[in-house]
Structure formats: C-alpha cells, structure tokens
Amino acid sequence: MMSIAARSGALSPYMQATKQTVKSLVSPGAQHLVPAAAPGGIRLAHTDIKIPDFTDYRRPEVLNPNKSSQESSEERRLFSYLVTGATTVVGVYTAKTVVSQFVSSMSASADVLALSKIEVKLSDIPEGKNMTFKWRGKPLFVRHRTEKEIAAEEAVNISELRDPQHDKERVQNPSWVIVLGVCTHLGCVPIANAGDYGGYYCPCHGSHYDASGRIRKGPAPLNLEVPYYEFLSEDTVMVG
Ligand code: FES
Asked: How far is the CA of 147 from the centre of ligand 1 (A)?
C-alpha cells in the first residue's frame, strides 16, 4: 500500500488542499501548513452542461457570429422603428376611443335631449296674442305680433334703452317674438299684454317690458332672454 507522501505528486489541487487540512487536524502543532487558498475557493469546470440553442429566436441579421452587430444595425433599427410606430398608432387610437366613449357617456341621453326641445305650431296662436309653453321647466312666451307692434318696436331709439338691443337682433321673423317668461330682476313670471309698453309686466316689483321683450321701466336690469330656436317651416318653430 502506497503512503500519502508517495502519492501526493499525482493528487489534484483539491485533494492536496484536503490533505493539508487533514494533517492540521491530526497534528494541531502543524496548523501553519494549511494553504492560503481554502478548498471552497477552487472551482471545477463542468463541461457536460448543454448550452441552449437560441438560433430559432434570433433575427436573421445577427445569426452570423463572425459578423459585427454594427453591420446589421440599419435593418434592426428599421424594425424597431416599425414596431414603435405601430404600437404608438394603436395606443393613440385606443386612447382616443376610450376618451370619446368616456366623454359621450357623460352627455345627455336621447330621451333627455328630446325633452330639451319643443315644437310649437304657430297657426294656433292668433295675431296679437301671446301663448305660454313649458320648456325645460321654465315658461316660454311665443307672441304673434301685429303690424302696429312690429312698427312700434322697430322705431324705438335704442340709445334710450337700459339694455340696448334693436328689435331686429331679437327676432328671426318680425311677426314672432320668442322669449323666456322669466323676469330678469328676481325671476318672477311676467304677465303678457300688460304694463306701460303693452308687452309684458312683472307684478313682483313692477318691471315693464315692451312687445320685443326689452326692459323699459322698473328694477329688472336686462331684456327677457331669447332662447335658441329655428323655424322648421312657416308654421312650425323648434325651440332648443
Ligand atoms: S322679479 Fe320681476 S320685477 Fe322683480
């Protein structure tokens, strides 16, 4: 049987280090013989590990290992630009769709919009008369003016008015005055065909409006409001 000393020339570094450690344990006085490099610091090569092949996943431009990646940078950059551009377009379109759906969900529904408009049949209102309708919870005055009223309102000097507005600015058709029946003082409902000017009179604090709905006397600061309206035909007007 060969001694340890006789075989030490054929030992691997790991075994030599192990031998030195065993010696130091058997002979405590020989601890100075332990090598500086501990056995744990030695790494052995494992040449049997298989390296996975990623060739199928690599771009054709970088398959050649002998080719510099800089040579294929143009093609790869173009691909990156295309992907980025397509992603941006899809992202912007998605954001636009989400935002427009969110905003449209907050707008009034069709039934609410239908209630916000009112159609008035004008032939039901005799000349010289005023009819009151309910529109968006407020009174709406539709007045069929006479030729005399039209001439009188058009002749008013607007420099004398508190809220200067010519009659032509307040009507689309001189025969029809369409205004909200809400006094601009504190919101009472004026009385039609009353007051000093023959238009509307608010009994709450005594405001007088003319036949164009303009304030002529009393505490109200502004003319009666003219809502948006359009004539659908000669006989029909739609307000709202
Ligand atoms: S509310 Fe009409 S005059 Fe005051």
From this structure: 29
